[in-house]
Request: fold
Amino acid sequence: MNERMVKRHARLHKTPAYKCGDKVLVRYRLDRRGSITPKRRIVLKGTILKKSKTNSMFKVRMVPPGSNKEIEKWLSVKDITNAGLFKGEKGKKMEQDRKRNLKQLRKKLYIPMTQDDHLDIFSSLGFQVLYNPNGDGNCQFEALTFWLQTLSIYCLVEALHKEIIQYLTENPDNVDGILLENFAAMPWDRYLASMAQNGEYGDQITLQAAAESFNIEILVVSSLGPDSTAVITPTSTIPMAQIQLGHFAEGDGEHYVCVQGDFQSDEQSIEDIDHQLLENRPEEEQEPQKSQKSENCSKTHEYKLQNY
Reply:
């Protein structure tokens, strides 16, 4: 091609002018390290860092599949498109396809699950992860501190840890007189000394102590599914608020996060049904039903501590 044809092609097919900081979608070629790796490209999200003088090459920062580290790479403008073009329904479908293709790629290359994959477990259960504490062993106390701040109760993680240990020291048994040592699987003094250490994982005993100390109800959503959901309530008072925690079971990493979602226990649903039946009955039959319902509400439900 002569110079005249090159200028005509450039005039008809103008190169997109991306600016530094623009969010783009890039077509990333996988490294060909053997015949097992598929010889194709995948779409990744990236950010423009630099551009060449001719606007034909751009330096893009992105996270390659199977890695949590960002890389910077020069790419041709042919492998870049504006991320703003893919909004709405088209963008949602593209994001779903990207996640599905990424999962298939990880299975094919035997790449382990990432932290985001584990957090998606609670999303599938209808809960949104609000806060993910550090995985240093203090995740339960850090998650409790996050929720207490929303209730205008401000304290450091270390102070909350000491307060819960102090409560367990002064209250070695529950309201029924049963020693908590029976649920600790070790002598009580040894349990308190171990739990007082920094980085020691909190358990359901410490959650019950937090519920009693701050008069709150704690909903624990397990990664094992709805059947393993637990509700921890104060034994002698009506809780002033409910907080929600997500718990990764032993096989999923043993970690606590702060979640939020709609939850309705079986007791609540039964009460709603009883209320509807009561409204549909004649007036002369409603009084005995009300008295019977009040007797049922006066019964205390014993909560059994279970170790995760």
